[in-house]
């Protein structure tokens, strides 16, 4: 599965994008530079997938439609593709940029060597995108049949049923369905490739500002993965990642406007195909073409505008109407150029109207679902812009982060001490270089590009001055590549000046040293985020997938674990999550979203609607009431099925199995049972032996705080426990164990644990039990963590919350005892999970 999702799938997706790009290139006149083919192709595929899912009955055919578009593109663009193949050595730097960008973007998954995704639980919107992509492929944009009582239906309706942008999701779902891949494991490779597409227009822009060869490659690469952009990619902010590629593509198309803005005779349109670099020289050659369109010659049609219109539509489909803040910058520059040319008599008003008509029709058709629900789309954009919900942000981001360097493992946090000072110093250097770069763009005569950059910067300033921290963060992220590219333009100008200087010793000082600082700052920032990211647990989600296959169609299913990814993994079981953002109607927990769930606080009558309950396998957590039996148990999960015809309990008393029950509580239940003709059922929890964490001996760098012992850096903790009798025992660890930890008992190595995380620190993960044979009496348990290594996530969550043991031969589920109301005294002083009154 790892090879399929991390290697084969991105290759297939890249081929789809290139094929679609070749088709657009053929229709628009063979003028697109090769580095823009993939990103324009991706935009075209988004348009196709939006149309097929908008027409509901076509939705399941979306993967076939995407494949057909790509095949058509390869068939029609084969001559050009074969030309690329024959001269592939000329494109070494371009190919290197793409491959390196993908490797950096997917580095945590690639070096983990297993199907997973990064930024786990940092921003659970990714769970919604997985759910949405799957739903849209199966049902299209039809939400009339959803069950809004459960979380599954609420999430789909409240996001996609209210015109939430779905362009990225339809492309993701359609492309992954071609290979039949689980969307949960294809999601990060999809994000990585979508970010990689930005390297194409970044290369074109780097060439326009005077960089070539390795310098252009370095500029394009660092502009693709600056710190803030990389952070957003790690948490899989798919809408913003796709929009970023479209924004840079619009900038490249603006810079290349003299190749395509006006209608071109068919016999001249194909000449642009050989110019791949997007350099200024190529631009001037293209600008010398005479349109000759006023005589109405056949083949003179305004199709050159198609790529820009398709990219604009894709941006709106992926990000929503809010993309207009960036899309209008390109439209304004191109519009002013067109009006200027018509006013100067170089082109006719008829030509202008033809270009506008083609652009408008293409933009509307390719983003039809967005424009058809424009009022709702605008409402969504307005709500996002005005929301006070900070999401995963701890506070407003520092505008300095837009300059590419931020020396800490999480973009939502602030570096401390010297790292903060160094971040500001590198940012100051980048800002100065960017100012010089802006001057250089004007000096080179790239006035269209200069105008686009100026409007992008102004749009960013306007947005950050009028919106909330959540939108400001997105604005900083989307602006970051442009600022980094400008900085490289400034260094290119210094390089030219140094070459002309009398003393050649100034060359390294002028260009090499600042370049190393700029590239190094971005590289170290990305490495710190790679080190600190959390990776999703593979085995646990594979088990959820098997549960969905086993119990498909037998829901609704109540989920007691905080894990919104179950919305996708259990998509055929009509999931309702008690502590999800959208809990089932009428069911809420004591603490709300993201906090642990105690089934004892759920009304027995409310459970009647749920034939299935999914719980984590944890002997210390309260089990479902007696109306449910254990239907299936895996390594991580238990599925409980409601007994046929089982009525709701008359009363349910949740208890702590570590404290004896008071007689007064049992007496009250007995009275209820006598009055209503019921029986008492008591759940006896499995025998447990606790190993203390709070009072353990541990390294000085490890600190105990709620919700457990934070195991920061290398070190170890030692605790003791006492067994009442010898034999085989299971050791259970609860916490968050992203880095690798070794577990030993009495000095004997037992196991190594890594990548076992769940929910958030308030919802500790329960690892699979570790079986060990021990004698009666006292024993010593040690958890040790090694020093820093290059493994992804080595700086991720590291918290031990609780350690306990249960007999290995006994079941780790409750034992039920039925007691007549008259014998209620036999329960006094006992230790139970719960006691309830059941009818009969």
Describe the structure.
The longest helix is centred in the middle third of the chain and has 32 residues. The chain is built from 29 helices and 21 strands. The relative contact order is 0.09. The strands form 4 sheets. Strands 8, 10, 11, 13, 16, 17 and 19 form a 7-stranded antiparallel β-sheet that branches. It is α+β, with helices and mostly antiparallel strands. α2 crosses α9, α13 packs parallel to α26 and α23 packs across α26. The two termini are about 50 Å apart. The chain has 3 domains: about 400 residues, no CATH class; about 110 residues; about 120 residues, Jelly Rolls (Sandwich).
Shape: globular
Structural class comes to alpha+beta
Q: What's the domain count?
A: 3
What percent strand?
5-15%
Notable features of this structure?
13% strand, single chain, five-stranded mixed sheet, 49% helix, Jelly Rolls, alpha+beta, 840 residues
